[in-house]
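As agreed, record copied across for absentees:
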Amino acid sequence: MTAFDLDFFVIGGGSGGVRAARTAAALGARTALAEERYLGGTCVNVGCVPKKLFSYAAHYARDFQDARGYGWKTNANPDFDWQILMQRKNAEISRLNGIYGNLLRNAGVRVIEARARVLDAHTVEVGGEILRCREILLATGGWPSLPDIPGRELALNSNDIFALPSLPDAIVIVGGGYIAVEFAGIFAGLGVKTTLVHRGATLLRGFDAEIAAHFQNDLRQYADLRLENTVKALHRAGEQILVTLADGHEIATAQVLFATGRQPNTTGLGLEEAGVQLAANGAVLVNAQFTTNVPSIHAVGDVIDRVALTPVALAEGQILAHRLFGTATREMTYDNIPTAVFCHPEIATVGLSEDQARASGAAIKVFRSRFTPLRHTLSGRAEKAFLKLVVDAESDKVLGAHMLGEGAAEIIQGLAIALTMGATKADFDRTLGIHPSTAEEFVTMRTPS
């Protein structure tokens, strides 16, 4: 121990790195964390937190419209000020940055605001300082990627969009995953003419196909959806950007957002020189204990390209810190991870999709409910909720729960506890519902379809 300046050096101040650093310090490890950009990582600065705030903002336009069905005589065209939203968002992000810094320093972690580079198995260089470290953690997250097409410099990525100086009158969004569909709902809700271009035939690959199909129909109500198509080139046409599609069509727009994926952020960290094995896409290869082929170097979070979710990175970081500096030996499980897509309407899911359950070879029963939520019986909005349970026919165990509709994330979070505990359909059936609510449908579905 005395041969090292530090017991634990963390590169990256996002969710996984901060949790690991705080936990290690609490366990008595001499810990430092280096962050070159902003504390809190993707989620706090250019991900889930500001995106959810934008989603709230977009929902108000729908709320104003829906209120008329309840007798509210509202302004037909309420004013929206993008600058106010951005100022308020930036203030909240700054507040969270400060909280993360205080959490680290109060835990005894030395915070270094500089880029770090690995020199060898136990040595890092950061801000001109050379430090010898017993253990090193890579928690550098991911970074959005852009396709190599003519005019790519005219496009925004999913980080850039959070610094957009003004609200455009039109936008083309490229991608079919959760980031793309969330921003389609956000911009359309804020009154922007929105086009979504996706190379596949369906959106939200990896989610339950039936949920994704119902959402796809809803999205068509507020955005122009161009499936099985790609962007071949962009070029400036006066004040607009001309988007050339593979099918030959051209779209004139004010902004273009590529939400086509993120790559592990490992470039320039010195990992190859230190002998750390990387995947073809740059992801750090680790074992079940989050350790690389170099025994003193570890990695968690998006940089290992397993499950790119903030709560997953938090859990991985905590498990690693306890293994290195404590006595706990819990292993990470990736079963029944709940997740949500804050699109319009919202999607949330936990457990296996119908296709995944069938592919496992299990005999299953599927329960479905599609209906107009009580709120929209007076609002007049043509929006239906869709709920789905996937059940093992032999054990009666609930394998998956899926929802499309308002409040989906809040509802599925509770069901995730039930699935983690191994709840059966009989457990759901004998649970009393809260009436009238959308959530009660999960405990009243009786007939498999």
Q: What stands out?
A: The first helix runs from residue 15 to 26. The two ends are 62 Å apart (CA to CA). The longest strand covers residues 129-138.
